[in-house]
Amino acid sequence: MRRALVLCGILASVTYVIADVGGGLRWPGYSFADYSISELAAIGAPSRPFTAVLLAIHDALLLAFAGGVLAGNYTRPAKYAAAFLAAIGVLGFVYALFPIQQRGAPFTTNEVAHLTLVVVNVLCVVGAVISGGRAGSRGFLRFSIAMVVVCVSFGAFGGRYAPSIAAGDPTPWLGVIERISVYAYVLWLAAFANMLLRDRP
User: Fold this and answer.
1) pLDDT value for 200
2) How much is the average pLDDT of 131-145?
């Protein structure tokens, strides 16, 4: 059972990729290079039904993984990372309560809440990756630090596009920038889960 729960960390990463790629393919005209991931679950988006369900599954798998680590006989840094990951899973379900509108629509309470949750989510990601990095070897710690730098720097750069999305203006390379940031975390999550699967508690 413990290994099955820890395996959920890898499954959560795979599910997120499927939600992103599958959602984009279900939206004719969607640009992976220029559109954000959040727009796949926007109100009225053709991809919303598919993406919203897959993201909910991702969040559930993430919570299962975090629960497996917290309940296991793992090191304190690993459990700190699991606590942050559990918070990210909960935030994912809260995200679903505030779906953004499609680009070109003025900001509403949903968009303000979404941006606020993004900031909290990034702080939890940093906490999880740094804590989890300390649970492994020096090489894994260096890898974790690199992923944090990539995630935060590209995430901050992508955040500059928020006004352009609201105005309906072009957002060249936003999709690439945001995906570099997000997939750095997704890759780390899979690596962290794999490390725990290979090592005994």
Assistant:
1) 55
2) 97
The burial class, CB within 10 Å (0-12 / 13-18 / 19+), for 91 is middle
- Token pair for residue 46? 């053709």
Q: CA of 82: how far to CAs of 15, 22, 107, 147, in Å?
A: 18, 28, 34, 17
Residue type, 16: Y
DSSP for 132-180, please give it.
Answer: HHTTS-HHHHHHHHHHHHHHHHHHHHHHTTHHHHHHT---TTHHHHHHH
b/e map of 70-82 (b: 16 or more CB within 10 Å)? bebebbebbbbbb
Return the structure tokens found at 170. Answer: 């072009």
Q: Are 185 and 147 in contact (CB under 8 A)?
A: yes
Domain boundaries, given as residue ranges, for the chain: 2-198
Q: What separation in angstroms does the CA of 44 have from each of 6, 10, 41, 49, 52?
A: 35, 30, 8, 9, 12
Please report how the helices 76-95 and 109-133 are oriented relative to each other, as an axis angle in degrees rounded to 10: 160
Query: Residues 139-147: what's their mean pLDDT?
Result: 98
